[in-house]
Each structure stands twice: as C-alpha cells, then as structure tokens.
C-alpha cells in the first residue's frame, strides 16, 4: 500500500481554497465529519509525479483563535496534525498581508507550510502583482503561483510540499516558540506579546512585497471629527433623534387613527352584525368579541405604521454606520462620569427591547458590572414604550407630540446616568470600570432590499410575538370586567365599577392622585401594562370601551381620556399627561424583563429593582405634574 | 511608524475612534493588514463591534425574547 502524505489546505474565506482543492483532487473526494463534531470536511487524493497526497480542505478562517465550531476544527487539525503533515496556505495575491498572519500562526504551531498564491490575474489587473520569488525570499517558505482554471502550478506546488516537509516549520525573520509552550495555560499577556511579535513579522514581510497604495483622505474623516467629538456629536445625535420622533408622530398619527377607526367602526359593526345573524348579539359574547378580541387586534394593527417607520429610520441609521458612532460618543460621556464603557452596547440594545439587552450583559467580564448594567437597562426606553408614548403624546400634546416623545427618551438617558451614578456611589461601589474599544465601521449606503426585509421581519415579529400577548391580555381584562364583586350582578352583565377589574383599579387610583391621575381607568391601564408595555394603551381603550356603545369613533377615546385627566388634574391635563408618560417610562419593567432580571441576578436584586422603579416612578411623575401645573 | 508594534498601534487608533482604513493610512501599512489586526483584536476581546439593536440577542435562549419585535432579525442575519 502506498503511503499518502497528509496535506491541509488552509486559508482565509474566499481566497480560492476549495477551487484549489477541487483542481488538485478532481473526483477523488469524500466527506467525513471532523472528529467529535458535526462539521463536515472534504478529503481527497492528489496524484502527482512526486507522489500521492491525502488532502483535507479545512474551513476558511482568519486566525487560529477560533470563534466558531468550524474554526475550532481548523485549529484542532493543525495542532493535532500527524508528523510530516504540510499546510498549503492559500494567499490571495490582491491582499497578501491578510493571509500572512494566518501563515505565521500555522508555522508557529509546528506545521511546515507552503504558500499557494491565487488570484494573480486579478492582482495584475489592479497593478498589485506579487512577485512569488520575492515573497518566498522574504518569508523563507516556498511560494507557488497557482492558476486553478488552467491547472498551472500544481506540479510545482507538489514539489514545494515535499521541500517544505524536508525543511520543517520555519519562517525567515521569525523566531518560533517551542512546540507546546503556548498551549493551554498561556496568559493574556503572553498571548498579546506573541500576537504583537507575529504581526510585526507580517508588517515587515508586507512592506517588502506589497506596495501601500496612496489613499486619499476620504469624506468620512471630517464627518467623524464632527460626529465623534462630544461637543458636536451629542447635539447632532439629539437633533437626529428629535427629527425622527417628530416625523414618526406627524406621519403616523393619521394612519394610527385610520386603523383604529376601521376596527372600532366597520370591523366591530361587522362582528356585531354576524352575532345578530346567529342570534347571539347583545350578550357577553358580543362584549368579548368587540371589546376584547377586535379591540385587541385593532390595537396591534394600529402599532404597525409607527413601528414600520421607526424600524426604517433605525435601520438606515444602523446600516449607514452612524449608530456605531453614537455608541462611541455615549461611551466617552459615560466614561467621563465614571460609568462603565462596556455598558454602552447592552444599554443601546435596551432601546430596542430590555429583555435581549439583559442577555447582552453577558459580554461584560465582571459580575458586578453585569449587575449594574442589568439594573440600568429597564430605564432605557424600549420600542414597546414608544408605541404608548406616541398615542399619549397625540392625546395631550397634539401640536408637539414628537417633542414630547423625544423628551421622554432624553429623560431615559438622564435616568440611566443618574441612577448609574447613584448605584455606583452606594450599593455598587466596588464595580471596576472597563473602557469600551469599538471597531468603527466605514460609512455606507443602506441597501434598499436588506432594509425592506429588515423592516418587514421586525414588524412581523412584533405582530407575531407581542400581538397574541396584547390580545390575550385584553381578553383577560374583559373577563375581569365581566366578573361582579359587588351589587349582586350576573356574570357578563355588570357595571365596570362593580367588576373585579373596576374594583381593583379603584383601589390603586388614590396612589396616583398626587400626579393628577387619580382615576380607575388610568390605574387599570398601568397595572395591565405590567404584562407588556404595549398593553397600556389597549387597556385604556378597553376600560372606556366597555362603558361606551359599540362603534364609538376612536376620537371618542381621546376626548374621554382628556376629559378624565382634565378632571383628575384640576384643569392641568398637559402636566398630568406628561406625568402619565413619565410613569410609563419608569414605574416598573415589564414582566419578561423582571423575570430575566430575577434569572440573572436573583430574587433579592430583582425585587429591589422593582421597588426602586415603583418609588422612583411615583416620585418623578408627581414631580413632573406638580412642576408642570405651575408652568 | 511609532515605537509600538503594528498590532498595538492599530488597536490603539481604532479604540480611539477611527476606522481600520484610516488607521492604515496614518500608519502607512496595507489596509488588509489593519483589517486583520482589528479582526484578531476582536477575537482577543480587545475591541467590540457594534452590531445594532439585536447584536447579542439569542432568541432561542430566552423565553422573554418571544415578545420582542427585534429578535428574529438576528436569527436571519
């Protein structure tokens, strides 16, 4: 039996590795699983005038510090290679310096290597032709130009593999570590020292063979100077955010009203008509269908225009690279206040949804940092709260709705910083500060197709995820409103004030009096909002709807809420309305967020956080009303 | 080139709020080399990459993510 020398094909993604493998092995291929994994590897036999080789096509990677199962397989294959194994490191001639670091890592692992230089025609077309002989002389390993389409260079590559096997692992100008010295227990300092040494070798090798093209200063330099300086970057971001909310409220308000009118008008009437046709109208079933199910579906549908516009705007800001700049500026501001820089990314996630933001704290290495950030996240104003703000702002500030929503987000940021400073100065004094070092993406135009898919996916996920929760909550609330607790009424035929729902809400309403909101409808909506913030508006609509005749126009809800708040606030509805919005921001995290906090930090911290929110929410909303009514 | 090695210098530039391409231009090294350094620094935990509002969200891991309007975008990414 002829022994086949093992050869590993190694390289960055998209440098022509698999094409080279196919050229070398032809049809003599088979697929195996990498040992102990589900990662598939393709192996094949390479028959040459210089002998037969058993070739393995490894997954593409930029480094032997693995980040995925595929990359682990590459590292394992090289570290555990049988004696005599040679690595063919595929190097893209259009950007050789990208591959030289991987080459250095492979050789330092003790694997003799040769370089297969691909994409030579492309490099030549860009006037960056790499001289294989010069590169080989510089780095001290055989370098072979390979043209896989014409099958040029494969015999020379086989000869080079034998030459490398005979020479052993070596690179000119790089002292290799002793085999195994860096395995297992290498400290971070040692790793950094080794990385620095390898990259220094790459820099010198690249300088010898790769001309650095003269690149002009781009427009992104002066733009970055503006966006990354706190004195200009923060005002610009505030202006962008204000414009976003102003446009969102102005553009979507008629659409929201239109959708609600459609559901409370034709759809509700249609439902009642259908029940009448089957002789089931006028009873509890009609109430459940119209005030529970149809109202719930209508509420979910009314959020769609708001969310689509907000997601579109956020998608553009993220895809363009602007949001990364915002994170850098936010980090600088937080660091200057003694808060942790690494908290910025989870906190920014919180403005989308608090629950994944809590999960995102796992990137922080220190448990106390994770705890501090996890306690601050519920103060970030999630997109669920945004839907509530927009409806409330339309009710109480029809001419300045965007500004009101914007101020709530500013308050959210102020609370994150203020509560962060408070916690760091009291119960979390031992938190160590870690700077955030962020990779700045280049500016780019958002791709319309990607953006459209992103918007549709996000909106659909809202409808599919939050929609059933809202509808189920409203049905549950309708049932609570159908159960009598006094007055001897029958189930389903009870005035709201005598129902379980009304009686419970009336018990809470006095707590809201100092903020001008001492009414059971408002109290009920806030309690319902604990399940999910989006439910707040729907519950408000429902608590009035169960008292109102079927088919009432949606504007009737706005008028009735304003009437109620005008009465409870003593003639200061705007101040009380703003206090209501502050309360929605602060008074408590939603159930899913609270549950995630409990899972991550335990009952004690989650309970303490809830108490902090209730107290702070009450204080701030009261302050907002008491100050607001003086203005 | 400064007295620091290429790796430290690029990481320092990027951590200071510049792009890899701008760092390469200032230091007179190929952009591909600067990109590779940034990639390796990210693997070593020295640099973070901004990934949008769902960067670190794992929808399959947390039950609470079901109600989040932004989860599945990551799964499709």
Describe it:
The complex is a heterodimer of chains A (631) and B (77). Chain A has helices spanning 17-25, 69-79, 97-108, 120-125, 132-139, 154-167, 188-209, 220-228, 230-277, 284-319, 322-336, 344-350, 354-360, 367-376, 383-396, 401-425, 448-482, 500-508, 520-528, 535-545, 554-568, 573-586, 591-601, 603-628; strands at 5-11, 29-33, 40-48, 51-57, 86-92, 113-118, 143-145, 438-439. Chain A has 631 residues and is of the alpha/beta class. The longest helix of chain A is centred in the middle third of the chain and has 48 residues, at 230-277. Chain B is mostly helical and 77 residues long. In chain B, helix 1 crosses helix 2, helix 1 (6-15) packs across helix 3 (31-43) and helix 2 crosses helix 3. The radius of gyration of chain B is 17 Å and the shape is globular.
List the helices and strands and how they pair.
The complex is a heterodimer of chains A (631) and B (77).
Chain A: E1 5-11, H1 17-25, E2 29-33, E3 40-48, E4 51-57, H2 69-79, E5 86-92, H3 97-108, E6 113-118, H4 120-125, H5 132-139, E7 143-145, H6 154-167, H7 188-209, H8 220-228, H9 230-277, H10 284-319, H11 322-336, H12 344-350, H13 354-360, H14 367-376, H15 383-396, H16 401-425, E8 438-439, H17 448-482, H18 500-508, H19 520-528, H20 535-545, H21 554-568, H22 573-586, H23 591-601, H24 603-628
Parallel strand pairs in A: 1-4, 1-5, 5-6, 6-7
Antiparallel strand pairs in A: 2-3, 3-4
Helix pairs in contact in A: 3-7, 9-10, 9-11, 9-16, 10-17, 10-20, 12-13, 13-23, 15-16, 15-22, 16-22, 17-20, 18-19, 19-20, 21-22, 22-24, 23-24
Chain B: H1 6-15, H2 20-27, H3 31-43, E1 48-49, H4 72-76
Helix pairs in contact in B: 1-2, 1-3, 2-3
């Amino acid at each position: 039996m002829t022994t086949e020398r093992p050869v590993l094909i190694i390289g960055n993604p998209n440098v022509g590795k698999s094409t080279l493998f196919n050229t070398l092995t032809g049809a003599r291929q088979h697929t195996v699983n990498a040992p102990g994994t589900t990662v598939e590897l393709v192996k094949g036999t390479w028959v040459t005038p210089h002998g037969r080789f058993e070739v393995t096509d490894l997954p593409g990677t930029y480094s032997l510090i693995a980040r995925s199962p595929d990359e682990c397989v590459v590292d394992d294959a090289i570290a555990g290679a049988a004696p005599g194994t040679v690595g063919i490191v595929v190097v893209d001639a259009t950007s050789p310096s990208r591959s030289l670091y991987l080459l250095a890592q492979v050789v330092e692992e003790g694997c003799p290597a040769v370089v297969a230089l691909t994409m030579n025609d492309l490099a030549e077309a860009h006037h960056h032709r790499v001289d294989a002989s010069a590169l080989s002389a510089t780095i001290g390993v055989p370098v072979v130009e390979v043209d896989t389409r014409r099958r040029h260079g494969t015999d020379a590559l086989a000869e080079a593999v034998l030459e490398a096997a005979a020479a052993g692992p070596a690179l000119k100008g790089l002292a290799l570590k002793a085999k195994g010295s860096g395995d297992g227990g290498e400290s971070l300092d040692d790793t950094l020292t080794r990385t620095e040494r390898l990259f220094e070798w790459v820099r010198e090798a690249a300088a010898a063979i790769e001309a650095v093209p003269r690149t002009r200063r781009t427009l992104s330099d002066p733009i970055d100077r503006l966006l990354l300086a706190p004195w200009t970057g923060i005002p610009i971001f505030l202006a962008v955010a204000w414009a976003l909310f102003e446009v969102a409220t102005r553009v979507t308000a008629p659409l929201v009203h239109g959708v609600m009118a459609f559901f409370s008008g034709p759809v509700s009437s249609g439902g009642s008509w259908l029940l009448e046709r089957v002789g089931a109208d006028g009873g509890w079933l009609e109430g459940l269908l119209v005030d529970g199910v149809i109202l719930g579906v209508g509420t979910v549908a009314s959020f769609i225009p708001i969310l689509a516009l907000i997601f579109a705007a956020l998608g553009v800001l993220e895809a363009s690279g602007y949001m990364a700049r915002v994170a850098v500026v936010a980090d600088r501001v937080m660091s200057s206040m003694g808060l942790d820089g690494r908290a910025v990314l989870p906190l920014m996630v919180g403005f989308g949804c608090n629950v994944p933001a809590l999960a995102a704290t796992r990137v922080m290495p220190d448990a106390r940092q994770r705890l501090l950030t996890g306690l601050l996240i519920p103060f970030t104003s999630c997109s669920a709260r945004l839907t509530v703000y927009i409806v409330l702002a339309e009710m109480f500030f029809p001419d300045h709705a965007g500004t009101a929503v914007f101020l709530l987000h500013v308050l959210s940021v102020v609370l994150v910083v203020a509560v962060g400073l408070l916690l760091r100065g009291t119960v979390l004094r031992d938190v160590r500060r870690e700077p955030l070092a962020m990779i700045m993406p280049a500016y780019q135009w958002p791709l319309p197709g990607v953006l459209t898919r992103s918007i549709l996916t996000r909106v659909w996920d809202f409808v599919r995820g939050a929609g059933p929760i809202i509808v189920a909550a409203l049905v549950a609330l309708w049932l609570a409103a159908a159960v009598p607790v006094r007055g001897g009424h029958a189930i389903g035929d009870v005035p709201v004030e005598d129902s379980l729902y009304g009686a419970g809400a009336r018990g809470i309403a006095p707590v809201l009096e100092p903020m001008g909101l001492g009414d059971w409808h408002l109290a009920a909506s806030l309690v319902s909002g604990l399940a999910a913030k989006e439910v707040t508006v729907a519950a408000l609509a429902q608590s009035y709807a169960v008292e109102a005749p079927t088919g009432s126009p949606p504007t009737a809800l706005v008028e009735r809420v304003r009437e109620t708040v005008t009465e409870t606030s003593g003639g200061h509805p705007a101040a009380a309305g703003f206090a209501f919005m502050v309360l929605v921001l602060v008074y408590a995290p939603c159930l899913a967020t609270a549950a995630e906090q409990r899972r991550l930090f335990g009952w004690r911290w989650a309970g303490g956080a809830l108490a902090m929110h209730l107290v702070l929410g009450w204080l701030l909303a009261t302050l907002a009303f008491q100050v607001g009514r003086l203005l | 080139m400064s007295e620091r090695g290429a790796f430290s210098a690029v990481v320092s530039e990027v951590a200071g709020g510049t792009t890899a391409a701008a760092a390469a231009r200032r230091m007179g090294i190929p952009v591909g080399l600067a990109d590779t350094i940034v990639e390796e620094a990210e693997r070593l935990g020295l640099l973070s990459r901004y990934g949008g509002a769902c960067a670190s969200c794992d929808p399959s891991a947390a039950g609470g993510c079901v109600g989040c309007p932004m989860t599945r975008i990551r799964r499709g990414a």
